[in-house]
What we know:
- The complex is a heterodimer of chains A (about 325) and B (about 100).
- Chain A has about 325 residues and is an all-alpha fold.
- Helices cover about 65% and strands about 0% of the residues of chain A.
- Chain A contains 14 helices and two strands, in the order αααααααααααββααα.
- In chain A, strand 1 (about 265) and strand 2 form a beta hairpin.
- In chain A, helix 3 packs antiparallel against helix 5, helix 7 (about 135-155) packs antiparallel against helix 8 (about 160-190) and helix 7 packs antiparallel against helix 11 (about 235-255).
- In chain B, about 20% of the residues lie in helices and about 20% in strands.
- Chain B has helices at about 30-45, 70-75; strands spanning about 10-15, 20-30, 50-55.
- In chain B, a hairpin with a 7-residue loop joins strand 1 (about 10-15) and strand 2 (about 20-30).
- The longest helix of chain B is centred in the middle third of the chain and has 12 residues, at about 30-45.
- The chains are: A mainly alpha (about 325), B alpha+beta (about 100).
- The interface between A and B is medium-sized, with 29 and 22 residues.
Amino acid sequence: MYTQALNTSEAEDRNLEDAARAEEFQARIDAEERIEPNDWMPAAYRKTLVRQISQHAHSEIVGMLPEGNWITRAPTLRRKAALLAKVQDECGHGLYLYAAAETLGSSREELVDQMLAGKAKYSSIFNYPTLTWADIGVIGWLVDGAAIMNQIPLCRCSYGPYARAMIRVCKEESFHQRQGYEIMLTLSRGSQEQKAMAQDALNRWWWPVLMMFGPPDRASQHGDTSTKWKIKRFSNDELRQKFVNATVPQAQYLGLTIPDPGMKLNETTGHWEYSAIDWEEFKQVLAGNGPCNRDRMAARRKAHEEGAWVREAAAAYAQKRRQRSAARAA
Amino acid sequence: MATPNTPLWEVFIRSRNGLAHKHVGSLHASDATLALQAARDVYTRRGEGLSIWVVPSSAITASDPAEKGMMFEPAESKIYRHPTFYDVPEEVGHM
Lengths: 330, 95
């Protein structure tokens, strides 16, 4: 999902742990206790969480870019106000998540620097372009819809600060998905051109959205420990299937066609079975070769550099005030 | 160049009159004024609050979770501090 690059094994860390403490820790997890920042935790648990939460935070921040692209061109004032509020929410989500990651002992600045240096990942989905207004509809409906599917179980994640951040995020995401679906509904009930625009956006985003859930279960090495530690409650394929089942009737209501001619309903399981996903495309996008990877990184670096004077001025002002009040007290 | 660290603040919000301020999260800001403004933008975009407190995180002293057994033991053993410890005949009604 927003943390797709986690599929590496961290077996080496596990050997070094104090076995008794690790056992006690696992017993707490099994008893559904929440782990809090100052509690003892295995180094690999900490490392996995820092990576997962910070990747999630980076995704929220980079996710502002494709949508920000349409703020000035939103078709009405109502749409523009809603899109602005949504992009502002994404920024807020990034900040909640950085704060949660920081409770594990990495500073936000350090995490942001890792992202700007290209050492940390963000979700593959934000490396696709938003070519038309309908893309804003599809992002709300499907990208945020997929994110909600993934984030609701994270509200019960074993790490307290992450779970609490996700509760706040989920409350706000539901507005995002509804505003996206409303855009799609308006377009699909509009002129032939508008309907075609909606269909085109769905065609371009469908497969990348399915990839958001990460590699298929048979290829994911990371799932096991994350599941054992109750960071993850459902597998990638389980969540992907839940998402597809929820989305098909929504697309039918819009009168749009999901761009998968092979898709069929399995009468026995009740699941909509989708065709094979092009995992090579996913790999390429994660490796930095998606349509917008370079643009996104350049935009983040530019914003960070151009904001440097604001951070410096605020720090200088705070220091001046401290010196003055110290001088007065003396 | 590495980005220098900005101080961390804990944010508390009172949602309605008569309720206590409650911890909602943390944020970074260079001083108290900016911390309050950031708290408004980050934590009250949907009318969540009537009042905000921001406290430098470094000013908080916390109990050690490793010692929670000893720390909270005095309360564990005193069941007579709870109303249900005392028998009141049913005829007396709700008390």
